[in-house]
Amino acid sequence: MSLRDQIEREIRGCGAIPFSRYMEICLYDPAHGYYSSNAEQFGKAGDFYTSSDVHAVFGRLLARQFEEIWRALNRPPQIEIVELGPGRGLFARDVLDWSKKKFPDFFAALTYTLQETSPALRAKLQDSLCEHLATGKAVLPAVGRRALSSGQVGGDTEIYRGLTTEALLLVFANEFFDALPVEILSGSGKLHIGMQNNRLTEIWLPALAEELEFLDRYGVHPEEGERIEVPIVAQGWMHQIARSITRGLLVMIDYGYTRNQQLAGRHRGTLMAYRHHSASPDPYQAPGEQDLTAHVNFTALASACESAAMRCEKLLTQSQFLMGIGEKNQFADAFEDCRVPQERAKVALQLKHLVTPEGMGEKFQVLLASRAIDSNIVATLSGLSFGSESWTAK
User: Fold this and answer.
1) Which helix (H) or strand (E) holds 36?
2) For strand 365-371 and strand 248-254, is the pairing parallel, antiparallel, or unpaired?
3) Cross-strand bridge partners of residue 274
4) CA 82 – CA 175 distance, rounded (Å)
């Protein structure tokens, strides 16, 4: 049975489903979901690529930042990094390899836990991180995901740890939140997917009070002809992340917006489908064969952190964050392997793509939040040395 047939059968049996449910099936169905069944969609030969696909310097710079955090907190005997949605493991491998080479004391204290539900991607992780998994330095826990069933959106939001809760914890999420299911509201109500003449069709039903309240607090209400995403599932994930951090930090990198930017008329109706590096606003064209994403509401996510008694630092662009980390040694992490000028020139272009506004530098933003760590220590981190004054969730 194709994914479209599965969606149609659920609608015939249970009635129209919220768009978030449709999006979850398309992305995370255990058998045919976009992320569950295919591990070849990443990279320049697939449908999209991440910062780790550009060059290993992304992971190397973050390894430098993680080591600086560990050192600033008096070198605890154990530190755990939990990466949400590690994909093929390129970032994890770069962090672990560079830490082993450059920061052996930090590497000795480190446990790297990979939280991935996709069977195809878990197989890739077993391959790309075989050495670190064999030594126990990397951990791939048996992560469960609730069975997909009608009316149930979001899957398993539990944070899986390899160490005890007393160990210092860093949660890393790069392009994780943009792929979580969203609700869509318009002036006509809340978007549902139904059936008409044996075809999928859009149906607008009344929105829930929780969704309208979300727009009151963190976003904007749609004007005539507009569609606005309501990322309720993302809020649940952020609450769970915050509860999992007894002492430690969250480092989240994604593309998104603040409420003030939405009030200014930007980032409205950001849902997009991606296939073979081509973007389309049509989420119904190829269920299970295209990525579906929506921009991240940083105001809402920061508020979720703060409501759980975490402290949010200033919101930075990826450019500011990476420039702060790399400035001290003039990005030597990028050029160390270069043997001839041509290689250096190529790496310089890749680094430029990561940090300049024309590349990924201004499209992605970094939210850093901490718990039970002196704010003065956090403020000294090199990744926070660039950027504007402190940002709060308003």
Assistant:
1) helix 34-37
2) antiparallel
3) 279, 291
4) 14
Name which of 145, 147, 95 is nearest 122 in CA terms.
145
Per-residue pLDDT tens digits for 131-160: 999 999 999 998 755 444 444 555 567 899
Of 199, 218, 292, 306, whose CA–CA distance to 257 is shortest?
218
> Which neighbouring-strand residues pair with 280?
273
- What are the pLDDT digits (tens) for 319-366? 999 999 998 888 888 888 888 888 888 888 888 888 887 788 889 999
Distance between CA atoms of 298 and 368, rounded to whole angstroms? 11
Model pTM above 0.85: yes
d(C-alpha 181, C-alpha 283), whole Å: 12
| Residues of the chain under the 50 pLDDT cut | 146-151, 390, 393-394
Q: Under the phi-then-psi rule, with left for phi > 0, alpha for psi from -120 to 50, and beta for the rest, what region is 309?
A: left
Provide the CB-side half-sphere exposure for 106 (13 A, CA): 23
Cα–Cα dist 68/76, whole Å = 12
**Residue 323 · residue 386 · CB < 8 Å:** yes
- CATH code for the part of the protein at 3-330+364-384: 3.40.50.12710
Structural domain spans, the chain: 3-330+364-384
The tokens for 189 are 């109500």
Asked whether 34 and 41 are in contact (CB, 8 A), the reply is yes
At 394, list the tokens. 């308003």
Tokens of 109: 């204290």
